[in-house]
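ugh ok fine here u go
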Amino acid sequence: MSLIRRVPKHGFTNIFRKEYSIVNLSSLAEMTVSGTITPQALVDAGLVKRKTLPIKILGNGDLSKAIVVQAHKFSKSAETKIQAAGGRVEVIPGV
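structure:
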């Protein structure tokens, strides 16, 4: 039997990959928290399941109120939508 048939065909696992807890803007718009949205507020609201992972905010959805969002990473569209609504983006260092 040839070598190509004997070698297992599994994918590649990147050991340097960063995993994030993903939160969309549509979920932030439904929250009743006014003012600053912190990672602990996201955990309390049930939007983040794993507390040990850093949080990334994605721009899926619209935001109508001015809020201050603290997270580890933001997508470009999320940043522009938050700032267009009159809010502010605060990046938490350490990731």
